[in-house]
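Hi everyone,

Forwarding the result from last night's run.
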Amino acid sequence: METLKRLLSLEGNLRVLALQAILSQLGFGMFYVVWQPYLLSMGVSIIELGLAQTVINLSSAAGSLLWGLLSDEFGRKSIVVASYLCRALSMVALLASRNPLFLYLFAFLLGFSAYYMQGNPARSALISESVERERRAMAISILLSISLATSTVAASVGGYIALRIGYRIIFHLCILCDLLGVLLISLFVEETLRAKRWDGCWISRIGGRLKPLRELAPLYLIVILQGLGYTAGYSLLYGLLVDHYDFTTFQLGMLSTAFNIAWALSSIPMGHLSDRLGRKPLLLASWAAALATALGFIYSKGFWGFLLFEIVSGFDPSMWTPAWIAYVSEKTSSDALSSALGSLTSYSRMAGIPAPYIASLLYSRYGFKAPLVFHGILLMLTLPLLLGLEEPPHNPLKT
């Protein structure tokens, strides 16, 4: 708690981003739980839901790449604001999604914002550059913990609201909270990119960054395998739990709450461990938690089994996210950091483009376990790549 108070009091950007994260997750902590059941309640089929998720993955790949490239040219703050506005527009489209055209417009805008179940590269770079290297993973973990603590409360509340009042009020709340967050960032966040460029050569510079960075080649292979595996395993999970096990939105909210509690409570300790022990041990521990989760879901027979392994699942990102962002930031120079983060996320999302459709076909033909088995197989393929990573030394190009 003292670490949290000290960081939030000394780092102005972190303090503002913490408050913005609370506002954001008040709405989107509910949204993550209810949007798939909402579409199913409107008569959308599992196959159509898979197609919508595919659109999200496709536009996420484009958005992650574009926001990352633009952030390295024009600064972090303006790109963070633009991408949050894009997410707010996606909620407007969802409210009109009884028209199929707006359903896919919602999916496109949500993915393009690069804020759906992923880290926006401009925001990740902004956080990394707002604190010194020795506390970078801890800072990332603190903001994640605050965000998740809010989601923990919001998820169960959202499930209850959807059950008793309806879904649409949640989407209105998402719009309001994102607009308030944009106002906070616009007024109080300080730009961290020192070498912003506004000359006419920015298009050619962006073009030169489209190709993968050679020094990050193993990371691209890892995110490609994970993008396909995680998306196939989990992108339709809540919808499949409703369709196969008849889970209610309140039960889905409890699952999301359990996941968020585990992530939130372990996030700061795991960030501290990453700063002390290095990035690679935490990445490997995250892999082990991911495999245990997949196996647990495969063999679970009812709600309580899924609840238990949702808790195990929460340890996966709490170890992975701060270690991964810190690892990339320490392997990349500052003027290319956002581009590197964006391109890695983009490759992950591109790999996941066919995954929801594959998952829907596997489920339709082989049953509930099939997408999770597929995810487990791809996890095994990532292990040699993780074992081959080298712990990065201090990068003198970084602040």
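The chain is about 80% helix and 0% strand.

Cheers,
N.
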